[in-house]
Amino acid sequence: MTIDLHAHSTASDGTTPPELLPRLAAEAGLTVLALTDHDTFAGLAAASAAADLELVPGVEISCRLDEFEVHLLGLFVDPGHAPLAGELELIRTDRERRAVRMVARCQELGAPITLPQVREIAGGAALGRPHIAAALAAVGITEAFTPDWIADGGRADVPKHVLSTVDAIGLVRAAGGAAVLAHPRSVKRRASVSDAQLATLAEAGLAGIEVAHPEQPPEVRARLGEVAADLGLLATGSSDFHGDRKPVRLGECTTSPEVFAALREAAVSVS
């Protein structure tokens, strides 16, 4: 088995339609793929209908850990679980409000972008910062995720509605899923999740942490593996595939069959 538990489609901020993603994954040699679009299950039906491999229903939830944002993967979740689906809807509608205000702030700061332009880039997906960044790049502002523009706390940033990570873990478990913290020490993110914070999340029901990830170098993976073992957490590996939006290929990082089986068991045990 070759297993990739983190991938995105055009249902959120990827560039690959969900109905094409399973074929690309199979061509890349994968036997298991989790579709984990940001705060939505919108691509699951199309991906499931086209799947040539085992497709794990998943979602990547934007949530708050102390003073910064983290992302939580919900794997094997029931997309029809009303409390989780309702919270994701709230996050998405707030994202629309946030994106509209961020475009306006960019305009006030002198960037000649428009909301219709950002919507065209999104192609029907829920609006997000990557779409605004692409619009900024089109007018020559290639470093969008900086304090000058749309980085967290930047001049054009707008606060958004988020769950606490502990609450998000509870929702994933209630929906019959296993919760895995995505890229906790990515070199591209503003802050890293500390050992103490991981211990707190483990006590709250976290099942695993994403150890092998393209944005986490070998020394970071080694340390995260040690922490996972100490806390009794499963160590996963995933590509975080976004299509053409990131220079990452499907299956670039993978999860072992043993860890995958343990994740499935963890999800079944709370369903």
Description:
- The protein has 271 residues and is an alpha/beta fold.
- The chain has a single domain, classed as Alpha-Beta Barrel (TIM Barrel).
- The chain is built from 9 helices and 8 strands.
- It has helices at residues 21-27, 44-50, 82-108, 115-122, 129-138, 165-174, 195-203, 218-231, 257-270; strands spanning 3-7, 32-35, 54-65, 68-75, 163-164, 178-181, 208-212, 234-237.
- Strands 1, 2, 3, 4, 5, 6, 7 and 8 form an 8-stranded mixed sheet that branches.
- β2 (32-35), α2 and β3 form a beta-alpha-beta unit.
- It is globular.
- This is PHP domain-containing protein.
- GO terms for molecular function: 5'-3' DNA exonuclease activity; 5'-3' RNA exonuclease activity.
- It comes from Amycolatopsis iheyensis.
Structure described in brief:
This protein is of the alpha/beta class and 271 residues long. It has one domain: TIM Barrel, CATH 3.20.20.
Question: Poorly predicted ranges (pLDDT <50, ≥5 residues)?
Answer: none
Average pLDDT: 94
Annotation field: number of helices: 9
Quaternary class: single chain
Overall geometric form? globular
CATH class: Alpha Beta
CATH superfamily grouping: Metal-dependent hydrolases
Find the CATH topology: TIM Barrel
Radius of gyration: 18 Å
Order of helices and strands: EHEHEEHHHEHEHEHEH
Q: What is the CATH architecture term?
A: Alpha-Beta Barrel
Strand content: 15-25%
Percentage of helical residues? 25-40%
Q: Into how many domains do the coordinates divide?
A: 1
- Number of separate strands: 8
Question: What does the largest sheet look like?
Answer: 8 strands, mixed
Q: What is the end-to-end distance?
A: 25 Å
Q: Structural class from helices and strands?
A: alpha/beta
Domain Polymerase/histidinol phosphatase N-terminal: 3-65
Protein name: PHP domain-containing protein
InterPro entries: PHP_dom, PHP_domain, Pol/His_phosphatase_N, Pol/histidinol_Pase-like
GO molecular function: 5'-3' DNA exonuclease activity; 5'-3' RNA exonuclease activity
